[in-house]
Every structure is written in C-alpha cells, then in structure tokens.
Amino acid sequence: MFDFLIAGIQAPVFLLVLTGMTVGMVGGFIGVGGGYMVTPALIVFGFPGYMASGIDVMHIAGKSVVATVRHRQLGNIDWILALAMVGGTMMGVEMGVRLLNYTKAIGLSGIALLTGSVGIMIGLFVYTQLETHRSQKKINELTQAGKTVGRELRVSTIPLFFQRIALKPIVRCHTARLVISMWVIVIVGIATGVLAGFFGVGGGFIRVPALVYMVGATTHIAVGTDLLEIVVSGGYGALRQYMSGNVDMIAVFFMIIGAMFGAQFGSIATSFVRGPAIRYILSYSLLLATTGAFLRLFYMLTAQQYEFLNFFAVVFTLGEMIFLCLFIMTLVIFSVRHRHGKWVPPWIPSLVAVP
Amino acid sequence: MAEGKRVTLDGNTLKVTVPMQIKESKGFRYKDTFMHKGIETNPWGGVWSVVFILLMGLSLGLMAEGFTDMCGLKLEKIKHYEGVH
Lengths: 355, 85
Description:
Strand content of chain A: under 5%
Number of helices of chain B: 2
Radius of gyration of chain B: 28 Å
Oligomer: heterodimer
C-alpha cells in the first residue's frame, strides 16, 4: 500500500502498475486512450471520482507518447492526416463540452450521456463486426485463389464517397496514400471531437473507426495517427485537470511505468496482425464498454436503487481489460506459430500477417 | 450558548466543527484536494507537469526503441500496401 497524499488515499502500487500495463497494451493495439476503462478502475481502487479522471487523462497523455514513438518506427503515422485532424478535434471537443453543459442545464445530462453513448457504441459495434466479417471472408477467398493478401482489406465503400468530395484545399497524405479534401478530415475531426467532448472520453474508439470508414486510412495507420492526436488532446485535457487540482502525479508516475511496457507490447503486436484483427478487437472493446455503460444506465434509470447493477458495470469494465489483453496475446502467439508453420485454429490465418 | 451546526456540547467541552468538515460529512467530495485547502501552488505547475509527463513518455519510448534495437529486434516499417488490399 502506498500513501497518495494529494488524493488522500492508500492504494496498492501493484494494481496501478498493472492497470497501466493492461490499458497500455489495449490502447497501443487499437489506438485508444482507454479512459473508459481506467477511470472506473481507479474509482474501484479508492480514488475519488474527480481524481480518477485527472490521473487517467494525465497518464493517457504520457502513455500515448510511448505508443506513438513505437508506431512511428513501424510507419503507422500519417503526420499530415494527424495535423489536419487535430484542429477539428480540439474545436469539436470544446463544442461537445458546451453541448454537455447545455444538456446539464436542462437536467438531461446523465441519461442523455449514457443513452447516446450506448446507441453510438452499439451502432459502431454492429457495423464494424459486419464489415470486418465480410473482409475476413474475402481474405479467405483470395488466399484460396492463390493471391497474396496485404495487411489491409476493407469492403466498405463509404470512404469512396468522402474521397470524391472535391472541396479545396485537397491534401495528399503520403503514408496513408490518400488524396482527400481537407474539409472532410476537419469535419470528421469536429464530429468525433463533439462526441468525445460530450461523452467525456478521449474519443479514440470513435476516431479510429471514423479514420478507417470515412477517411479511408488503413487500420494500422488509423491507430498510429489517432495515438498522435491523443497526445495533443490528452495533453490539453491533462493541463485542464491539473489546474483544477485533480491530479496526483505519483499515481500517474506508477501508471506510466506499467503503461510503458504495455504500450510497447500493444504497438509491436500490431505488426503481427492484419487490419481486420485490430478492428475485431476494437469492436469487442466497444461491446464490453457498452455493456458496462448499459448497466450504469439502468442503475441511473432505477434511481440508483439496485447496487448490483453498478457492481456488475465495474466488473465488466475491469474484466474487459483482462479479456482484451488475453485476446491480443493470443493473436500474437498464434501469429508466431503460423509463421513457423505450426498448427493454428482455422480463423487465424486471415487475421495474422505473414512477412 | 445554543447548540448549532458548528458548535456541539460534548460533556464539558465545546466541539467546533469547521465548515469544510460539515460539507464533507454530507458527502461533498469536490473541495478536498490540496488546491481547495488553500495551499498555494505554482501557477505554472500544470504546464510543467504536462511537459514533464510528455517528455517522460518520449524518453521511455525512445529508450524502449533503443533497447529493442540493441537486442537485435529492430522493427521494420510495416508494408501497408503490399499484396491485394
């Protein structure tokens, strides 16, 4: 047990390091900050709610830098795409916060927040699952036809619609191999920023699908580029939280130590898999987070009478971190086995990359 | 003297409660950080802390990259557009 003087509580350091590591791994792999997992976990460890948010956002800023450095080495970052999007995202976040304050003023915030969050997450989960399943099927067909399938295979035609919008200035994103109107990128940034600001999260789980399905970046590049954006948005959020006195730097320090190892593993793991594997994990992450939010929604709708709903919401959130880490590790292990020609389950070859 | 919210009679002693403790006993949890207790902090503390965390992340990231390179595990750039995509 460690005495966190600023937060005014005692908490086990081991759990903080472990949380940092697991969330770092998931975040480095699917390109999210992981705020929706860390904050409930810190509350369970005894940190007050406002401190949990502050520590969470400060640790996300640091962890994202660690993951971004590794994704840069892997060539997963498109700097032009990130720079074009970051302005829109920041503007969107501010608009989202104002929208939240408005809903709060008319007495709707809690319910509106959770209902909106559940609706969007379910929608994203269903679409990602359907699209990724079709991609996986197509990869299998192409492989059986003797063709070499690359890292990415998407069957969605939505990006083509957005890429056809010829509103100047048109930008050329070299790494992502995109020629697209800058307005599309900025507006996607604003839209995802509004959602992020309204729901009070980093927005990675909305931005990664948006980059893949609207802008048309590959999943690997969407993950790397999104992490770079989280450095900026997380840094700004961390500054705001620190100025409100909500950050215990010692707790942040312990979490970053864990996140350093987790983020390394998560980022490197992306080099072992194809795009659909990342999208599958992202969609499962959405589903589990939605279940947690859904339970919390019922808890609030029933006037907070049934404590077991809140308890299961926390269990789902913590269980999600462990489940996703195991899933990522399984994919890496099977990928290595597949490279060495050993037995793997039949669904693995279409998800892992063969050098 | 009448017993009130702030002063209670405990045997022969008067127990005076500070307003913050009354609020906290009601479950008010938003004003108990170091800042709200009136401890002055450096106004630039937030900026320094964020810069420190970002630089720490950068250093750790580069150290890890150097470490894996040193171990002979140099990672190559992913070839995103090779094969059918």
